[in-house]
Amino acid sequence: xxxxxxxxxKGYLLSLAVFAVLTALGAVLMKITPFPxxxxxxxxxxxxxISCLFVGLYISxxxxxxxxxTGLCCSAVLLACILALVSACFxxxxxxxxxxxxxxxxLCAGVAGGILGANMKK
Length: 122
Hints:
By secondary structure, the chain is an all-alpha fold. It is built from four helices and no strands.
């Protein structure tokens, strides 16, 4: 049981690290290059998608079954953690305005990662 929890925790920490690196890279890229700042949200969604894909792939490759559900649940928890951190840093009260339909794309990436991970050979 503790091995599963360690594996899940490691997957989430690695995914959060990937998200932080990609977000910092995007901020530097937008600061140095002439990319418009209006692309910032699209870049954050792409970084969330890559992180959700990774967490779905990592955790469902360990469990080797029900990849669709595992990827969906793991990516939903990761998105909730990221949005809670952002909400805690930048607003006084959590609100429902932070939820957007664009967050369905990272969830779909997590599902794809879960399916791919469940079908991988150990």
